[in-house]
Amino acid sequence: MKMPNHIVCGLLLVVATVACDSVDLTIGVIPGAPGTLEVFNANDAAWNNVHLLVETVESDHSTTTCTERDIGTWQPRDAISIPVCGEKLRITVTTGAGTARFSYANGELFRVFGRKEVPVAPSTAAP
Q1: Which of 21, 22, 74, 120: disulfide with 47, CB 3.0–4.6 Å?
Q2: What domains, with CATH codes, occur in the chain?
């Protein structure tokens, strides 16, 4: 049985998209000072050479960079303050172990897998 090329290409794209995201990287988000959020490493291990990218999601689904941070070592439960620069934020964490994408809107954190957003259970291990 021969599969059409567009189906094979679509399957490869889905596999590549999911394979690029690391399920080992998990964050937590809690309200901070007015106009800010506290983002913390919700894992039990420290992360090295971390790049934190925070973007505002515009009404047309495009994104605008809000802030970027490079963190040498991000210890478990260490919080980093970020500005709330829009109604919906996209938060991307990149380390040597991989990349994890999240979105935050209406007080709720979501894990992003491709175009799918899955709610993340509220963390009881907040700093």
Answers
A1: 74
A2: 22-119 (2.60.40.730)
The per-residue pLDDT for 15 is 39
User: Pick from 40, 62, 64: which is nearest to 54 by CA?
Assistant: 64
Q: How many CA atoms lie within 13 A of 55 on its CB side?
A: 15
User: For residues 11 and 70, what is the distance between their CA atoms, to the nearest angstrom?
Assistant: 34
Instruction: Name beta bridge partners: 31.
Output: 37
Binned at pLDDT 50, 70 and 90, residue 73 comes out as: very high
pLDDT band (50, 70, 90) for residue 122: confident
Tens-digit pLDDT profile for residues 95-107: 988 999 999 999 9
| Bigger pLDDT: 35 vs 14 | 35
Q: How far is CA 87 from CA 18, 79, 127, in A?
A: 26, 21, 24
Number of Cβ within a 10 Å radius of residue 100: 21
